[in-house]
Design brief:
Blueprint: H1 4-12, E1 17-19, E2 26-29, E3 32-42, E4 45-57, H2 61-70, E5 75-76, E6 86-90, H3 96-110, H4 113-122
Helix pairs in contact: 1-3
């Protein structure tokens, strides 16, 4: 089971990541968001920042659908996100190894190529 502190530790462990000040967590690489806390819409109320749910960049619709259909206990989407390459991840349902993979993959899809090459060279 993972939490917001795990997301923060993993995201900040990647090269050139900036944390944007927010009510929850919000991480970017090259000015592009790759993982942040879910701003849940509530009719007639202010959005609720959910730190128990991470929004992850997944790259494209095919990957999004594969995650949503393949692991519905972990992933979901919400109104307003249908056309975006993003999924919501229930942190309480994911283990650290899987979270590490997901955060790293999201970072790789948003990072400039030279950063990815540098990370691959270090591995």
């Amino acid at each position: 089971m993972a939490d917001a502190d795990d997301v923060r530790r993993l995201a900040l462990g990647l090269p050139h990541v900036d944390e944007v000040e927010s009510e929850g967590f919000d991480f970017r690489v090259g000015d592009k968001g790759f993982v942040w806390s879910y701003p849940e819409r509530r009719p007639g109320k202010r959005r609720l920042i959910r730190t128990d749910v991470a929004v992850l960049f997944v790259g494209d619709e095919a990957e999004k659908q594969a995650l949503l259909l393949g692991e519905p206990d972990l992933f979901f989407t919400a109104p307003g996100y249908e056309s975006m390459p993003l999924v919501m991840l229930r942190l309480g349902e994911v283990d650290i190894d899987r979270l590490t993979e997901l955060v790293t993959d999201a970072w790789r899809m948003r990072a400039p190529e030279e950063l990815i090459a540098g990370l691959d060279h270090e591995s």
